[in-house]
Each structure stands twice: as structure tokens, then as C-alpha cells.
Amino acid sequence: MKLHWQIAIALALAAAAGALSTPDSALIRAGAFAGTLFLNALKMLVVPLIVSSLIQALFGLSDPSALSRMGLKAIGYYTVTCLLAVVTGLLAINLIRPGIIDGVPAGARLGLTSAAGEVMEKIGHHDAGDIVGVFTRMVPPNLIESAAKGDILGLILFSLAFGYFCTRLPEPLASAQRDFWRGFQQVMLGITGLVMKFAPYGVFGLVAKTVALTGLDAIRPLALFFIAVLAGLATHLFVILPLTLRLIGGVSPWRHFKAMTPALLTAFSSSSSAATLPVTLDCIQNRAGVSPRVTSFVLPLGAAINLDGSALYECAVAMFMAQAYGLDLSLTTQFLIVLMALVTSMGVAGIPSASLVAISVILGAIGLPLEGLGVILAVDRILDMCRTAVNVFGDSCGAVVVARLEGEDVLKA
């Protein structure tokens, strides 16, 4: 049985097991243990995969201008699609207006102040000045410490610099570096293949635990907000990104969805775009047919700065909170929200619920208290799973589009 069918069956069984079990039952505890092992194994691969992939990608560029050419194409694609995602979230909240119940702001009904202490302790203090941190993290004082924290922006910049200067070494030093990193990357891909054999068990454990903890009751208090965000994510996933594939890349969206199924299911269950990166690399190279020259550069870059689903969610939360507090935001303030969601999403770590930190920056910038975040914690985990899948699919579309613009013959319609 193909891997994506195994994962799909595991998802269905996990939903049933979680609904019929309690969080402290033996089945859920055992599943949570298996899920944690699987997620840790994927995270273990992220740093060596990013380093080896980027350095190997630079060795594969016979034309030095190819790096800047691909970089400009990738960043241009990421910026446009991320902006479209943010605007989609803005429109969804303005149309459905989940923060207004029976014509009255829903703040009092939702009890926003009840979770203030918990949220302040979880998130801490953040303000608009934290946006600068997105750029300062690109040059960390301690690269190993930064990588250990899951902050891959600095790792990407260092790997690009290291790979570039490796290509400028004289022979035989350049050949030695090339052979070493090629072998290193092949070893990491082999380990990734081994870890993926256990994906169905890991997915079962992660999803069963989530369903057992939250259930359906977690959705009800914020049903309209939940629906609005899902509508925005679905529009971006099934309309905007497929149109991008078709119109810019000349690629069949259906074939690309099929190729990306294992990565999408892994992203949904793990809520971590960084942990899903090994699976995404495997799907794009072996199922979509994109060359390692493109994937090794574009996908790690996308995992760091291209988070369409997170950007959409950040904008949606800020607008929802403004409605719940009864604020009538001007077009200027809404534009500020759009801009900040675009910028902060580029620095969000690819780990579960990392968007909460970026959201706190946006709320502080428009004058909303951080206690409003307590309202969305009930549905954040489930929406996190959905937006992570959108993040990963957006990255994969970027790799295919850049490959087609580079003249590669992949997934042609």
C-alpha cells in the first residue's frame, strides 16, 4: 500500500480512537509516545538536511548567476502568494464578521479577560520592535544555539555563504568538499526514508492525542471564527495556489496535489512545516520530478520565509480581536495589519503554535491587549494543523513554479 494511503487510514483511525478515548487512556498515551518519537526524528533531520541541501545546491550551479536568478524568482513568488493569503484572510473576516454576534461585539460574551494571565505567561511581552528581530536573527551570534532552537534563518544564510565559498576553492579542495557534501546529503535522505516508514504510526499518535484533548467542544465557542479561517485557508489552498500552478507554471494542480499527499498529511498531523521539510523534499524530487538543483535551494528557503497559512491566520486573528473589542478599524490600520502579517510570518519558526508570538506583535502594534489571544487557544491547535498544510503546499508550489521558469520539464499539464 502506498504511503499516502497508509497515512490517510492512520488519520481516520486516530480520529475515531481520539473521540472514543480519554486523554489519559493507555491507547492515547502509547500513541502520544509513538507520535513524539516520530516528530522528534523528523526534527532531528532538519538541520543536517538544510545545511547539506543548500551547500549541495550551490555546488550544482554551474552558472554563478543561477543562484541570484533562482533566488529572485523564489522570493518574488513567495512575496506575492503570501500577500494574496493575507488579503484572503482579511476578506474572510470582514465578510463573515465572527467577532460580532447579533450586532454586538462578542468580547464580553467570549470572556476575553479570563485567560489573560495564562496567555501573558505563555507569550511574554512583544511589540512592533520585534519585527527587527526577524532580520537580526539572520546573523545569529551563536549558529549552533540558533539551530538548536529551531531558528533556521541564520542557518540558511550561513549555509549559502559556506557553499558559495566552497565553490571558489581551488582543486583538489573543491572536489573534496563536493564529494563530502554529496555523500552527506545522500546519507540524510536515506535516514529520511527510514523515518518515513514509521509515518503512519506517528500520525496516528499525534492526531489521536489532539482529538482526545480537544474534541468537538473546543470548536463550538468560536465556530464562526473557525469557519472564517478555514474558508480563507481553503480558498488559498484550492483556488489561489492551483491557479498559480496553472497560469505561471503550466502545471496540473491535480497531479501536484497527488504528488504532495504524503507531505500534506504529515504537515497536518505534525503542525510543523520545519519537521515536514524532509518529507517535502522527498515528494518534490521523487514524486513531482523537480531537480535537486532547485529543491535543495527553494524548499529550505520557503520553509523559513514562506508561510502563507500562518500569515493568513495572523491577519484573521487580529481582525477578529478588533471586532470582538468593538473597534472600527480604518483602512490605514487594516493595511498595517496586512503589512505586519506579511513581514512577521517570514520570521515565524516552523514549529507548532509559533504564530502566537507573531500575532502578539501585531496586536500590540494596533493597541489590542494580548489577553485576546486566550480566546483562540481553544481552536488554535486544530487550525494550526490546517495552516501548516497550507504553508507546506505553498512551498512546494514555489519549487515547481521556479523549476518550470528555469526550463525544467516537471508535471506538465
What amount of the residues lies in strands? under 5%
- Calculate Rg over CA atoms: 21 Å
Question: Which fold does the CATH topology refer to?
Answer: Proton glutamate symport protein
| CATH H-level superfamily title | Sodium:dicarboxylate symporter
The CATH architecture: Orthogonal Bundle
Plain-language structure description:
This protein is mainly α and 413 residues long. The chain has a single domain (3-405), classed as Sodium:dicarboxylate symporter (Proton glutamate symport protein, Orthogonal Bundle), CATH 1.10.3860. It contains 18 helices and 2 strands. It has helices spanning 3-20, 26-59, 65-96, 107-110, 116-123, 131-136, 143-148, 153-166, 173-196, 199-214, 223-247, 253-270, 273-286, 292-305, 308-324, 331-345, 355-365, 373-405, and strands at residues 100-101, 104-105. Strands 1-2 form a two-stranded antiparallel sheet. The longest helix is centred in the first third of the chain and has 34 residues, at 26-59. The two termini are 27 Å apart. The model is unreliable at 114-128 and 216-221 (pLDDT under 50).
Characteristic key phrases:
75% helix; mainly alpha; Proton glutamate symport protein; two-stranded antiparallel ribbon; 413 residues
Overview in brief:
The protein has 413 residues and is mainly α.
Please write out the topology.
Layout: H1 3-20, H2 26-59, H3 65-96, E1 100-101, E2 104-105, H4 107-110, H5 116-123, H6 131-136, H7 143-148, H8 153-166, H9 173-196, H10 199-214, H11 223-247, H12 253-270, H13 273-286, H14 292-305, H15 308-324, H16 331-345, H17 355-365, H18 373-405
Antiparallel strand pairs: 1-2
